[in-house]
Amino acid sequence: MESVNLYRVIFAAILPAFLLVLFIYWRDKNQREPFMQIVKGVLYGVLSAGIAMLLETLLSPIIPAEPVTWLGAVFKGFVGAAIPEEFAKLTMLILLLRNNRYFDERFDGIVYAVCIGMGFAGTENIIYLLSNIDSWQSVAVSRAIFAVPGHFGFAVAMGYFYSMIYFKDMSPRYASRVYWMPVLLHGIYDSVLFMAGTPLSRMTGLSAVLVLCFYVFCWYLLKHSRKKIREHYERDIHVSQRYSFLQPGAVIEDVEPIEESKPLCMPRKMFVMMLTIGLVILMIWLIWGIWTYVTAL
For a designed S-S bond to 194, which of 2, 73, 93, 109 qualifies (C-beta 3.0 to 4.6 A apart)? Predict the structure, then answer.
């Protein structure tokens, strides 16, 4: 085997994530976040990858390495990947945005979520490429086309609903969507791929159909992400235009006072709520893992 330049491998692994961070930074045209906050978000994403790996290690006794049934594929897609990974990202997003004075627009939630998602995706990419070093070029291309943009889409959904909670609504449907919507998108993404690799799908020729479904889902995820990005961007533009006539130090006469827009929920409350949900899920995983280990003795 010919020697492999590790710098090229790492560069190929992080390049797609880096480009998507640049894209969302460029898209934030109204009031861009400080550069160090972007870097901090990416580093939090790297930390989230470590948390996810720890959780997946705890779950490994009950997760099939190679699913042989569609049910096993769905179980692995959600329990083995989507649930722990999105939990880790959301935990880092909450920690990053608690008492963050730069988080003052709805679009910012998407920006910071994408930074965390891309830090996660870049770290995961490095691991995948180093684990498949003999064919790292093909793995890098396929993951740059599908896996990294997939994490981008999951992050957009998380950031979108995080901002909805923070700035607009604290109803249960929004509070839960900040977690289960990325989990749902991520779980479907992985489940379809795992289902396509099962013996039943290969023997019956359903693998080709499932791969086609996977392409359609990726197109939907891209469309969904563009819509959510546009919605928050237009909301922020609307708010800035509404107050654009107000100049610092100006005395406004014959104008009704405008109540300052404030978030309807406190970051501390949301942090406690999401942490409680995460701890409950983690306890269920641990009890399940202990029960599986004891019954196997």
Answer: 73
